[in-house]
Every structure is written in C-alpha cells, then in structure tokens.
Amino acid sequence: MVGLGIAGMSAAIGLRRAGWTPVIVERAPERRTGGYFVGLFPEGRQAAVDLGIADHLHTRNPEGGADAKAWSVDRRGRRRPALGFLDQPGGPAAVLRGDIEAALWQSITGVEVWFGTAPVAITEGPAEVQVLFENAGTGARYSESFDLVVGADGMRSSVRRTVFGPDEDYLANWKAMICAFQLKEQVPTYEASDSARSSPGWTTTPWFATSWTPWKRPLTTCSTRCTRCGCRGGARGGSCWWGTRPGA
Ligand SMILES: Cc1cc2nc3c(=O)[nH]c(=O)nc-3n(C[C@H](O)[C@H](O)[C@H](O)COP(=O)(O)OP(=O)(O)OC[C@H]3O[C@@H](n4cnc5c(N)ncnc54)[C@H](O)[C@@H]3O)c2cc1C
Asked: Of 212, 243, 244, 210, which is closest to residue 227 (Cα–Cα)?
C-alpha cells in the first residue's frame, strides 16, 4: 500500500481481513494527522462500521443537537435562518479528517508501516511486482517484490504517474481554492452551537460549530434497520443516527 492516508489504511484493513499481509509505505517521516471538517454521510458511516473502526470514531456535531441554528448572513451582517450543512438529507455527521485518520490508525495494529519511504520504480512481472524504494532521509535505495501494489498516495499519486502516465491525464482543475482554519472561539453574537454561511459574490464563507471534545458516545451498530432510510450504520442510545428509533 503506498500512502498512509485514509485510502491506504482502509485498503490495508480490508486486505488483512481477506488474508493478505499488507505493508504500508509512507513518504512522510511520521503520521499525517489533522485536517479539517468532513461530513460523514450514511455511506461513510456504513463504511466505518464495515471496516470495524466505528468504535474509535466520534462525531463533532455541535452541542445542543436539534437546537443548533444555521444562518445565512448578507453583506451587512444581517442574518436569516437557513438550512445548515448538517441539515442535508442523510444527516451527515461532522467529523474532522484527523478523527478518521486516528480511528483508522488505531485499527491497523499489526500492519507493518515503513515511514520516510517512497517508491521510485515499479516493474510488473508475470508473478510479482518489483518495487524500487528510496529512503527519504538517507537516499538509500533498495528493492522488494510484492504480489500487489496499491497506489493510495493521494491526488498527485506517484504510483499512478509511474504506471499510467502524467497527472494532467487524470486531474481536472476546478479553478477553485479552499482555505480552512479553526477559530479560537465562536464568532461574536452567535450562540456556541450556531453555524452560518456568508456568500457575497464568488466566495462562500461558511463556519461550523463543532464540539471541542469528541462526542462521548462512540458509533455503535444498530441491530435493527432504520425505517427512515434503511440504514444500519449506527445507533446512539437506541436511537438511529437520524434521531429515529429503529422501527419507529
Ligand atoms: C494532512 C492531510 C489533511 C487533509 N485534510 C483534509 C480535510 O480536512 N478535509 C478533506 O475533505 N480532506 C482532507 N485531506 C484529503 C483527504 O484525506 C483525501 O482527499 C481523502 O481522504 C482521500 O485520501 P487518500 O488516502 O486517497 O489520500 P491522502 O489523504 O492525500 O493520503 C495520501 C498519503 O500518501 C502519502 N504519499 C504521497 N505520495 C507518496 C509517495 N510517493 N510515497 C509514499 N507515500 C506517499 C501522503 O504523504 C499521504 O499520507 C487531507 C489530506 C492530508 C494528507
């Protein structure tokens, strides 16, 4: 597995379950933790349950739950009630990218991880794949053979470039940029659990309230399918993710 990101760790868990002995190589000298807001939709929650990482994953849904308000704010700062990100169909759960990374990391115990290592050449043979690695610190190169190489090394995957061709053949530029950072405290005059969005011109500035500490109750699996959407992705205290009691 090339890349210790969400894709690499998820694939390693799946392959290990299928009886393989995966090895993950990561270019960075250590785990790449952190990241900002990610909405976990039903498919993502189901994937967390299927991967067996749900017990390690907590949500950042703002304290106050159903009472949390969402606002649309105009240029003059006037606000009116609006649907917030978490009000979308499927009721996404708020998590930080680092929460998913941490939950996966806790679940790949036993999987070998080589940090500071990147492939520089990949040669496919009839029975195995020969990979030439370079150690990022020392520059030393060495070869190993594997049954399968999985490129999970992100948007500008060097595995894809090496095996299939240049990035430009696969990437589409959306001509958009995103910048995200955490505020030390809630925007003045808003309640702690409020979220808002301001969209003057071509830019949109949303801000999300997240709870400072992970949600106390981890995701656990529902035994009954929710009648609202058929999910079995999680339950909190007998209620479904959507706040619906299974079977209700
Ligand atoms: C530090 C970080 C923070 C992020 N924050 C957010 C976020 O807040 N919100 C969001 O929606 N998305 C975020 N992303 C992107 C999001 O994680 C990915 O788009 C998505 O999860 C897909 O993950 P991935 O595993 O395919 O790729 P990535 O998450 O990009 O992981 C790829 C991994 O491969 C490693 N790698 C790259 N090249 C090589 C190489 N040649 N050899 C070995 N290893 C290599 C990288 O160091 C990285 O650890 C972040 C990614 C990172 C790395």
From this structure: 244
